[in-house]
Amino acid sequence: MRIAGALGARRARAARCAGAAFFALALCGCNSLDPGGGILSIGAPAGVVEAAATQGSPEHRKLVAAFGGEYRAPAVEAHLNDLLARLAQADSNAAKAYRVTILNAPAVNAFALPSGNLYVTRGLLALANDSAEVAAVMAHEIAHVAARHASQREEAARTAQLRQRVAQIVQSARRGEEVEAIEKLSLASFSRRQELEADQIGVAMIARAGLDPYGAARFLEALGRSGAMRAGLSGRGADEPDIMSSHPSTPERVSRAIASAREIGAPGVGEDGREAYLAAINGIDFGDDPKEGVVQGRRYLHGKLGFSFVAPEGFTLENSANAVIGVGSGGDEAFRLDSVRTPVETSLEDYMRTGWIDGLDADSVTSASVNGSPAAFATAKGADWRFRVAAVRLGGDVYRIVFASRALGAEADRRYLASINSFRRLPAREADSLKPLRLAAVAARKGDTSQSMAERMAVSERAHDLFMLLNGLRRNGPLEAGRRYKIVVE
Fold first, then answer.
1. DSSP states along 385-402
2. What distance in Å separates the CA atoms of residue 434 and residue 429, rounded to the nearest whole number?
3. pLDDT (0 to 100) of residue 185
4. Is the pTM of this model over 0.90?
5. Distance between CA atoms of 166 and 413, rounded to whole angstroms?
6. Which of 29, 137, 155, 444 qualifies as a FRET site for 8, CA 20 to 30 Å off?
7. What domains appear along the chain, each with residue ranges and CATH number?
8. Residue 223 confidence (pLDDT) above 80
């Protein structure tokens, strides 16, 4: 949870915010979540137009701030810019003006802007395994700009809106809805074609630069595995293709990327640059930045905002830009923690009744204290969910905690109240002691296996799965002695 935000978004947006249906029922509006938006490379982010930000401009600073700030890693920056230089030599119209900014975000994302700014996240750097893979990502994003995909999407969207308005005025509301559905499907298909086109252009671009054209398929495969693992950890289902999705399914992208690479040559035709890449990323931060909030098992700590919180047993937490969300009991329980700035003269009991949550039982609102901080508790209900709600004032912010259960019995409510009462101010000394995890590239010793290397990882959940993902491995067993592998360390 990086920043506090105001309410007021439409209810349809609430469902997207939470990633679980109960929030759509409970919240009248909520803050937008991680601008990384998940695990798929998106080209230019929403709201960025052709008159894009230049480095040092206010627009650039705002964009970087929205993704956790700039992460300084000179060795990585130098390596990525060297790769861009190789791409420019191979395709002078596509890459010569680009420079890289690394974003301090654990999500896997990248985008390029017409100004020549190219952005990649720490999470993407951790997932990539060699120079060819990360070059394929950058080439893909540059291809979006070179093909003017963002402008094409904006023009298509404007045309779709105009057709919908005409249909509603000239024909009927129902016909307008039908046109809207058709246009949405058309736009989604248009965007999927753009993604596949950018993949194909990117494969050709890195091949001309002398890099392994199969790097694109390897990274896309890792992307799919990362999404499946993330969905499993958060309690949500696997990422199934949606006919309205703006991206083709990852398996489709992998198969097409492999086909594009085969048109160039057999595996081994280009350089993968693995050792140089691992040397460059050795020692970079991994996962959440404690200053922006970090998940440690069921515990959540935020160094900058200065608070901690412990979720009930069985909950899996996920940190995002403006909120912490959690899922438990196979999806039958969930919670959200976020913050909002309210006037200090507004009591928490009055704030509870302002309408920020649907189905509130006004008679259930009570004043309370949580570890010395003023608080208010209440309950609410929707068609299928029951809610335990709390608002805790800490400094100038009000932290809102919403627990949801399909059956809010006495035992569940007891666990939720205990969790709410774990919310506390984080002492400055404890906040200062929080350090990020790091990614280390270490050589396997004789006799090392994927399991023995995973046991050296400073992670508590699914360490072996994470080790396999980070290193692009599919089979358990012995590792190649002397070969370097990525592990997560303190």
1. -EEEEEEEEETTEEEEEE
2. 9
3. 41
4. no
5. 51
6. 155
7. 58-286 (no CATH), 288-432 (3.40.1000.10), 436-489 (3.10.350)
8. yes
